[in-house]
Backbone:
């Protein structure tokens, strides 16, 4: 554990800017520490000294008795640097700057923030904030915050749980925590980091992951995270869900290639989190839903789900959501269905989703017996129980059955309980006590199940080897790039650059009498858009095609006409998180079809195959509408070779292979572009 653990383990807290004035932010941390029974030393700091809420106040942390573990700074922005200097001189290791007026306000505030951080780092002081609402460690009752959550008339329970909540936004972080507490969740830590000027939210999450009692981590981020910090967090073994704002941004840079259009920064983050086994939540409810699922110690061994319901409608909705979330609605074994048919009324269903029907209300044993049979089926990795408008007595019976099967089988069991709270006021508490995550709709239960599989699925830790090819010194023309691709082992069309109409005709004859002609002009990436490509040029028309394309002012490339296949795009571009490989449905409609998937490089074994499987257009590769199946193994090898080719290339480039045609046998790169990003 590092000094950051003092945010929740501090045995002494100094509040710099403390005051007894009603409503002042400097009063709240002292009042909260007092109200909630903090067992450590509380040290109010105020230039006037005296007493604050019954505690001796000191003019400076230098006057207060040490050692001091944690400082909470809530003074005006212009006084913060001096307060930081005092903390350094007093030997304090961690300080929270709650004050605003820094980088969030503009250039002047950013300069003040940079100066403050520099002073702290020079003195070995870690800073959380500025512009944050503080930190709470529920277990040790460290209330270093001014959040209104703890000034509510009703005292918030500080009974600690295993969930850590870390948020750059203070109000959002404590707001989410309040919603979780209202649900019955028990967070153990709520930490806000504001501007992330020194200590980042990811650093705090990684530190919390080392806490033995931590069962799961939830984070809200506004900045693009550091990829190494993400990897470190993922390797902790603790389940993590992150909510990252800014999905609507268009990527932060104008890209010259199709790859840049498909692999926006937000999609790259999606790819990174998926690779690392971190859940990307879409909103606060989804973040908390994942946190609910993380509280259970049971983890799925696979993505196969069995749905059991007392409502046919709920079962159908759940089945739809299982497919939509990328899970599998497992086909139960024959013997399982046969056993269920002996239990379930004839008007129910022994297929997955299993509909026990409302007959369970008169015969509660139907639920117990059905669940036992389903849980014993080794094709089932998770069970989602769906029931509606059940009252307290019926809920109790269902909970007993679900809890028993979860304990006996060791498989995760999630509950969708659709009905108003007044029907069963104690249901949520009963389910939580049984360790069963509880959701108000099938969709939310299934999303939580998908989150649970995301953090549980095995991930390769090794990487595929690179080819050791150096970064190109300048942008390559298509012929130059294709020569490099061929040297790396990728298949490209037969052909060459020609210098005359007669040579163009000769090459056309060499490649079978019909060819593809292209203008080769440095900087011209989208050749089709301007008529710089001619497909199916016969030998008799070669001279005219050569003359027309020569008018673009460059060379002319003549290549074989490759047979029919499935057109894809393969591209690599650099991003804030590192180089990213993208695979998408290709050709001239790449952006319009918007069917793409990405991975951060380097690839791990199995990544390329998984990317192919994630395409919505995968059916085209499998041979849709009677067409022959494409050579998917060769496509996988092509992806792995491209990743290996660029493994040692320095950042600031885009590689665009579009289209890549997957044939019945083999895969060929038909067009290729290499772009070096221009410095601003």
Residues:
């Amino acid at each position: 554990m590092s000094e950051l653990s003092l945010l929740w383990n501090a045995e002494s807290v100094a509040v710099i800017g403390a005051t007894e004035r009603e409503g002042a932010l400097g009063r709240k941390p002292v009042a909260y520490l007092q109200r909630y029974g903090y067992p450590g030393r509380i040290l109010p700091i105020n230039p006037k000294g005296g007493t604050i809420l019954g505690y001796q106040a000191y003019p400076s942390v230098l006057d207060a008795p040490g050692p001091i573990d944690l400082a909470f700074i809530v003074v005006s922005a212009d006084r913060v640097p001096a307060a930081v200097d005092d903390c350094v001189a007093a030997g304090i290791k961690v300080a929270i700057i709650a004050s605003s007026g820094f980088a969030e306000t503009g250039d002047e505030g950013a300069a003040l923030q940079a100066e403050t951080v520099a002073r702290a780092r020079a003195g070995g002081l870690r800073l959380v904030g500025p512009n944050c609402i503080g930190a709470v460690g529920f277990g040790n009752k460290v209330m270093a915050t001014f959040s209104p959550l703890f000034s509510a008339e009703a005292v918030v329970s500080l009974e600690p749980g295993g969930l850590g909540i870390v948020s750059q936004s203070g109000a959002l972080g404590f707001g989410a925590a309040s919603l979780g507490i209202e649900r019955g969740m028990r967070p153990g830590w709520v930490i806000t980091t504001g501007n992330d000027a020194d200590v980042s939210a990811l650093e705090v999450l990684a530190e919390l992951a080392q806490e033995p009692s931590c069962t799961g981590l939830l984070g809200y981020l506004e900045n693009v995270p550091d990829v190494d910090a993400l990897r470190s967090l993922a390797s902790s073994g603790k389940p993590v869900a992150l909510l990252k704002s800014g999905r609507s941004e268009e990527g932060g840079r104008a890209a010259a290639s199709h790859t840049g259009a498909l692999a926006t920064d937000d999609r790259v983050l999606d790819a990174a989190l998926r690779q690392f086994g971190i859940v990307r939540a879409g909103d606060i409810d989804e973040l908390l839903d994942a946190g609910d699922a993380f509280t259970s110690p049971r983890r799925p061994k696979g993505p196969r789900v069995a749905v059991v319901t007392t409502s046919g409608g709920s079962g159908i909705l759940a089945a739809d959501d299982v497919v939509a979330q990328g899970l599998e609605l497992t086909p139960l074994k024959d013997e399982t269905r046969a056993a269920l048919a002996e239990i379930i009324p004839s008007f129910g269903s022994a297929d997955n989703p299993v509909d026990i029907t409302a007959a369970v209300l008169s015969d509660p044993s139907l639920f117990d017996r059905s669940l036992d049979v389903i849980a014993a089926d080794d094709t089932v990795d998770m069970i989602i129980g769906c029931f509606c408008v059940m009252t307290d007595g019926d809920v109790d019976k269902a909970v007993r059955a679900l809890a028993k099967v979860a304990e006996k089988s060791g498989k995760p069991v999630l509950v969708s309980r659709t009905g108003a709270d007044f029907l069963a006021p104690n249901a949520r508490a009963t389910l939580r006590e049984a360790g069963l995550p509880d959701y108000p709709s099938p969709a939310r239960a299934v999303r939580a199940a998908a989150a649970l599989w995301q953090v549980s699925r095995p991930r390769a830790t090794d990487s595929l080897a690179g080819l050791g090819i150096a970064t190109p010194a300048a942008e390559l023309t298509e012929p130059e790039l294709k020569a490099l691709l061929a040297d790396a082992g990728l298949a490209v069309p037969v052909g060459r650059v020609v210098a005359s109409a007669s040579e163009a005709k000769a090459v056309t004859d060499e490649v079978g009498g019909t060819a593809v002609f292209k203008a080769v002009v440095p900087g011209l990436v989208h050749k089709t858009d301007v008529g710089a490509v001619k497909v199916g040029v016969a030998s008799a028309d070669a001279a005219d095609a050569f003359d027309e394309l020569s008018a673009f002012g460059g060379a002319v490339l003549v290549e074989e006409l490759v047979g029919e296949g499935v057109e894809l795009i393969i591209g690599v571009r650099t991003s804030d998180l590192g180089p990213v490989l993208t695979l998408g449905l290709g050709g001239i409609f790449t952006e319009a079809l918007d069917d793409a998937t990405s991975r951060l490089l380097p690839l791990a074994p199995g990544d390329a195959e998984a990317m192919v499987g994630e395409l919505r257009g995968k059916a085209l590769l499998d041979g849709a509408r009677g067409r022959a199946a494409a050579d998917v193994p060769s496509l996988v090898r092509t992806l792995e070779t491209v990743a290996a080719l660029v493994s040692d290339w320095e950042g600031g480039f885009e590689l665009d292979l579009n289209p890549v045609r997957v044939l019945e046998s083999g895969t060929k790169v038909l067009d290729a572009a290499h772009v070096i990003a221009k410095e601003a």
